Amino acid sequence: MKKFEFNTANKKKYQELLTHYDDIQSALMPVLHLAQEQHSWLSPEVVAHISELMGIPEIKINEVISFYDMFYDHPTARNVVQVCTNITCSMFGGREIHKGILDHFQLHNMRPSQDGKLYIQKMECLGACEMAPCMRINNIYEGHLTLKTAVQKLEVLP
Ligand code: FES
């Protein structure tokens, strides 16, 4: 198993994060976000490292990862794209946009593209209903989409 550890910048961020919490366990979610930012998904090596670092059993960490949609226990891609298909976005075409994106790029939901560029994920409400229909590309919101503008935004990604 290839070992994971935080890079120098993230080691500092990790230490800084811990100062915000009374006990180390409470820092788990932000630490997982930090690890996912660095590694793009929370692989068994990442979980093993965090478990050792924070003294939290791997099984507990895996429970948290599997509970939340924003944590990935499988490989993603350079660009993680979350497309909202909840009620408000659906009223404005969110489901069609999600399906249209998958069809256009010939992808499956939650499976990375072969070139490692795109990972498309159907999501429940992203908390930005005023921008419906919307999606989040690497945590940046894009709203008032049509299928055409959504595809254009994804085509120009690195
Ligand atoms: S329903 Fe799509 S952001 Fe709320």
Describe this protein's structure.
The protein has 158 residues and is an alpha+beta fold. It folds into 2 domains: 8-67; 79-155, Glutaredoxin. Helices cover 44% and strands 11% of the residues. It contains 7 helices and 4 strands, in the order ααααβααβββα. It has helices spanning 8-18, 28-39, 44-54, 58-67, 87-91, 94-105, 147-155, and strands spanning 79-84, 118-123, 135-137, 140-142. Strands 2-1-3-4 form a 4-stranded mixed beta sheet, covered by helices on one side. Strand 3 and strand 4 (140-142) form a beta hairpin. The model has no long low-confidence stretch (mean pLDDT 96). The structure holds FE2/S2 (inorganic) cluster (FES). Residues 84, 86-89, 125-129, 132, 134 line the site of FE2/S2 (inorganic) cluster.
Question: What key phrases describe this protein's structure?
Answer:
single chain, 158 residues, alpha+beta, Glutaredoxin, 2 domains, 4-stranded mixed beta sheet, elongated, binds FE2/S2 (inorganic) cluster
At a glance:
The chain is of the alpha+beta class. 44% of the residues lie in helices and 11% in strands.
The major sheet is characterized as: 4 strands, mixed
Tally of contiguous helical segments: 7
Percent helix range: 40-55%
- What would you give as the CATH superfamily of the largest domain? Glutaredoxin
**Which strand order do you get reading across the main beta sheet?**
2-1-3-4
Blueprint of the fold:
Elements: H1 8-18, H2 28-39, H3 44-54, H4 58-67, E1 79-84, H5 87-91, H6 94-105, E2 118-123, E3 135-137, E4 140-142, H7 147-155
Parallel strand pairs: 1-2
Antiparallel strand pairs: 1-3, 3-4
Helix pairs in contact: 1-2
The structure holds FE2/S2 (inorganic) cluster (FES).
